[in-house]
């Protein structure tokens, strides 16, 4: 909501607004007070504003619910070029946020915030106080969220972050809080802004161009028109270009103590007799009874080869350092092909027209448009990666070189092969996203009511074009042309059917013999489309209904009708499990919902204010929800106040969870059954396919949230707030736990991977079968500190210091069987995006010096250390261990992920009232991020520490106002 400017009130009154208590009681009090205390004659109305988290306009500029405001100056001081980048550095953001840099994730190309670590789906994002259509690609194939990239940074007036539950005001999804982005509404003039960024390594260029134009004074011209356009282009940063930054971008971490026999020892290793990773030469399993894996270039006597391939020598294909004791050909495919930052090009458009119809009424129209093109790369595909689809798991572990394949060293017998398809090239995703939002509204006063009503339409369309992925039926037929394999490929691929009979896919050193027609059949371009739509109509009204000893009673009422629809089509081929290494994700659903809500504000005494809110929501698919919010504010003295809230919240299941479709993805899990049998690699978490089905019988998630705090202004220009908070969420919608499903035997195994000599070895888990269920509950609590002070130094200018610190005491998750684990300060919960962990301390510390036309700011962002365990007091100890051949100890040593702290500096100089220059250095000391072997959102480092992976970064620009 764009709000009129107001003159701040002194002392603590600037910071606090009254909270809630029971509406019926207050209504009775209101009636009595209206008769007893009429407003004084001739009293002038006080200027009022709207605050995120309330529908009642009021004189106080902040709320007693914890609200953090990020204004334009804060955005500029941060040095971040997008709102998404800034929000994800804030102390309130935690596990479950979606970084744009996670190019290989389900929600590639988008960015989302996760307040309190409860996930992006439990954080409601608003634009000017109203909803937006969510991104078309759900995070982890399940969690629907709003893409922060759609926000044009140059048009932002401020961002208000409500840090407690707000379902009583806004309905579903506001369990963890609300991020309300408020854009400019009545700007007059023209501003042009241009900036360019570049890393210390001369890559990762970030070009930004923005124009904002506003014309028309509402009082004089009776209209205002505002238009903003912003273009951005970020260039990619490759892992291979950060090879000197510790573990950044590397999967081969042998110099950090890992060995070739584990997942961080590089690609191409032979793990043990019955297991091997994908090699650029090809690792093959001796088909003789009790045979083991050998590299195709092996010249070792006893390998059983019936022919040898001198040209397959590892040194002919790579110069990567070797050292696999079992003879594999090692490379670091992650370092060679993956990116720290994908390429992305964006265009943001925003316009608003406001018409002053008469002294009491305004009409307004808002239009938003956003276009994004992003491209992300990842490693070439292995030929044996198993997948799942709604029909079940597809076991690709048996892929083999046929008995007559010319590159088979066991010529005459089919032999299992583990091959990295480097000749096909990297897997590339090109995501095109288009977003539109249109609002038409009317606001004004009638019969003593302030009224605001609007209709809204919003849509997000996403298209993901992929290349480099292997067609299973064609790959199997080209490697092992049995009658069954050839028949399947002919039926599924016209391109394969057009190849000459007897065509083989030549691998390794002989891949240059393959035709382009073969590659076109083996790895055609594949794509899928997604669209989400939101249509909304609402009306809300507020007024004063009487007086109490502390002031006017405020009442707000409103109604809302909403239609949501979403559809994600499966990527071509995944609906039958035919794309090696690519899971299935598809869903479709729609719902209608209607809501009625009311809010009451009662200043029962000059020092005590109470308020209450109640909302009723009806969904055509999951029934009804009643959500109240209650609270109190007590101001015993002008400079000090106590505040507290209680609220209920809920999140209705998304179409991905209760619609039509399904999900087949990957997770990491250990295998306790094989571990107990002595298969050591099964004791360490490794990748498995997880097949999950929607559940139409799901109920909404429910929550209770509490906050209690104090606000103190001990000195002029100094303010301190301290708030303790707790959110308990139950009925959580989750995939059934991977570990629990494995323990229950809901798995598909590959018997062919059983280790010879290990009695009873059933083979590796290749797929886990789960459903979405209302299962767990989560309780998270902590404390927020927000302090700011300004020192006036006369001719030397002003110095402003501020700190925002969030400490999490507990992040407890209780399973269906009653088992409770605490993730606070650990690397869990790895069932959510990126497996980035749950640090229990995050701090933002700022210092700004202003003197005349010059402003210099420093911002320190700190992420606290955490244990590299799956949860507190995990009996299994460290979540990651070195292989026995490398000592078998905790990885990294001490089982800790070290803290990470960076300093960013910004400077701005105003040459004239119209022209200014600004510059930023991010990660001034070029800090490297600590090793994190467990996360899957980045290679070798935690995605929370992205600035450390990128390294020192410079940007500079100019702004001119006409």
Brief overview:
This protein is mainly beta.
Structural category is: mainly beta
Low-pLDDT sequence parts: 1-47
Shape: elongated
On the 0-100 scale, what is the average pLDDT?
Answer: 89
The biggest sheet, with number of strands, parallel, antiparallel or mixed sense and barrel status, is: 22 strands, antiparallel, barrel
Strand content: 35-45%
How many beta-strand segments? 44
First and last CA, distance: 27 Å
Please report the number of helical segments: 14
The helix content is under 10%
Radius of gyration: 30 Å
Classify the oligomer: single chain
Task: Explain this structure.
- This protein is mainly beta and 962 residues long.
- 9% of the residues lie in helices and 42% in strands.
- A hairpin with a 3-residue loop joins strand 25 and strand 26.
- Helix 7 runs antiparallel to helix 8 (483-492).
- It is elongated and about 95 Å long.
């Amino acid at each position: 909501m764009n709000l009129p400017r107001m003159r701040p009130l002194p002392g603590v009154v600037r910071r606090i607004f009254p909270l809630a208590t029971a509406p019926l009681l207050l209504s009775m009090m209101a009636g009595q007070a209206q008769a007893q205390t009429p407003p004084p004659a001739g009293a002038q109305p006080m200027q009022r504003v709207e605050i995120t988290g309330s529908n009642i306009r009021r004189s106080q500029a902040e709320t007693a619910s914890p609200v953090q405001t990020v204004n334009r100056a804060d955005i500029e001081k941060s040095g971040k070029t997008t709102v998404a980048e800034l929000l994800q550095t804030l102390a309130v953001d935690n596990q479950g946020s979606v970084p744009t840099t996670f190019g290989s994730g389900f929600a590639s190309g988008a960015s989302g915030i996760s307040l309190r670590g409860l996930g992006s789906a439990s954080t409601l994002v608003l634009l000017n106080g109203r909803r937006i259509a969510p991104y078309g690609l759900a995070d982890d194939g399940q969690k629907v969220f709003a893409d922060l990239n759609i926000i044009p940074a140059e048009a932002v007036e401020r961002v208000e972050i409500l840090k407690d539950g707000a379902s009583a005001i806004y309905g579903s999804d506001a369990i963890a809080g609300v991020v309300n982005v408020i854009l400019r509404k009545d700007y007059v003039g023209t501003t042009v802004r241009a900036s360019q960024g570049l890393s210390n390594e001369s890559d990762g260029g970030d070009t930004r161009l923005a124009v904002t134009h506003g014309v028309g004074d509402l009082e004089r011209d009776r209209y205002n028109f505002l238009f903003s356009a912003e273009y951005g282009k970020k260039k990619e940063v490759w892992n291979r270009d950060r090879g000197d930054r510790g573990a950044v971008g590397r999967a081969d971490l042998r110099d950090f103590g890992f060995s070739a026999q584990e997942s961080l020892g590089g690609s191409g290793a032979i793990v043990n007799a019955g297991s091997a990773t994908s090699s650029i030469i090809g690792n093959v399993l001796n088909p003789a009874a009790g045979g083991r894996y050998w590299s195709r270039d092996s010249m070792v006597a006893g390998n059983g080869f019936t022919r040898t391939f001198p040209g397959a020598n590892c040194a002919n294909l790579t110069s990567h350092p070797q050292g696999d004791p079992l003879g594999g050909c090692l490379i670091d495919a992650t370092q060679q092909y993956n990116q720290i930052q994908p390429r992305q090009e964006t265009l943001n458009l925003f316009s608003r027209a406001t018409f002053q119809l008469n002294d009491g009424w305004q009409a307004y129209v808002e239009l938003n448009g956003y276009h994004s093109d992003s491209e992300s790369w990842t490693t070439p595909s292995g030929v044996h990666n198993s997948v799942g689809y709604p029909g079940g798991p597809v076991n690709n572990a048996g892929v083999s070189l046929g008995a007559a394949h010319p590159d088979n060293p066991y010529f005459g017998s089919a032999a299992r092969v583990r091959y990295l398809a480097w000749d096909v090239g990297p897997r590339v995703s090109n995501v095109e996203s288009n977003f539109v939002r249109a609002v038409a509204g009317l606001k004004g006063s009638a019969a003593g009511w302030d009224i605001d009503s609007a209709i809204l339409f919003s849509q997000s369309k996403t298209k993901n074009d992929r290349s480099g992925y292997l067609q299973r039926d064609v790959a199997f037929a080209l490697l092992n042309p049995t009658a069954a394999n050839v028949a399947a490929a002919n039926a599924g691929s016209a391109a394969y059917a057009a190849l000459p009979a007897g065509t083989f896919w030549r691998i390794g050193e002989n891949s240059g013999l393959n035709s382009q027609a073969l590659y076109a059949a083996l790895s055609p371009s594949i794509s899928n489309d997604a669209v989400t739509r939101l249509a909304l109509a609402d009306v809300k009204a507020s007024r004063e209904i009487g007086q109490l000893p502390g002031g006017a009673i405020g009442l707000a009422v409103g109604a809302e009708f909403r239609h949501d629809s979403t559809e994600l089509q499966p990527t071509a081929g995944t609906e039958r499990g035919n794309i090696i290494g690519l899971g299935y994700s598809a869903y479709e659903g729609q719902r209608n919902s209607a809501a009625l809500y009311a809010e009451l504000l009662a200043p029962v005494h000059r020092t005590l204010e109470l308020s209450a809110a109640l909302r009723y929501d009806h969904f055509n698919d999951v029934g009804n929800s009643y959500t109240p919010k209650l609270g109190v504010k007590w101001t015993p003295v002008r400079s000090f106040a106590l505040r507290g809230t209680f609220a209920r919240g809920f999140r209705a299941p998304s179409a991905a969870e209760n619609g039509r479709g399904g999900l087949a993805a990957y997770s990491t899990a250990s295998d306790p059954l094989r571990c107990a049998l002595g298969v050591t690699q099964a004791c360490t978490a490794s990748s498995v396919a997880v097949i999950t089905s929607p559940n139409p019988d799901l109920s909404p998630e429910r929550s209770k949230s509490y906050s209690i705090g104090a606000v103190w202004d001990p000195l002029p220009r100094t303010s301190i707030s301290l708030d303790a908070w707790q959110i308990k969420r139950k009925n959580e919608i989750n995939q059934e736990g991977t570990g629990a499903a494995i323990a229950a035997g809901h798995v598909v195994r590959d018997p062919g991977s059983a280790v010879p000599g290990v009695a009873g070895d059933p083979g590796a888990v290749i797929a886990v079968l789960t459903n979405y269920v209302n299962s767990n509950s989560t309780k998270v609590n902590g404390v927020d500190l927000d302090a700011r002070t300004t020192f006036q130094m006369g001719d030397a200018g002003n110095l402003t210091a501020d700190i925002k610190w969030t400490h999490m005491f507990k992040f407890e998750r209780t399973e269906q069987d009653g088992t409770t684990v605490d993730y606070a300060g650990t690397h869990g919960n790895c069932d959510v995006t990126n497996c980035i962990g749950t640090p229990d301390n995050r701090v933002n510390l700022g210092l700004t010096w202003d003197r005349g036309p010059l402003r210099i700011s420093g911002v320190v962002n700190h992420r606290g250390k955490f244990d590299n365990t799956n949860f507190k007091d995990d009996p299994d100890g460290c979540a990651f261990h070195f292989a026995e051949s490398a000592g078998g100890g905790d990885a990294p040593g001490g089982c800790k992920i070290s803290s990470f702290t960076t300093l960013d500096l910004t400077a701005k100089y105003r040459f004239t009232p119209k022209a200014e220059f600004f510059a930023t250095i991010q990660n001034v000391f070029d800090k490297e991020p600590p090793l994190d072997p467990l996360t899957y959102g980045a290679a070798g480092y935690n995605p929370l520490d992205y600035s450390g992976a990128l390294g020192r970064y410079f940007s500079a620009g100019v702004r001119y106002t006409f």
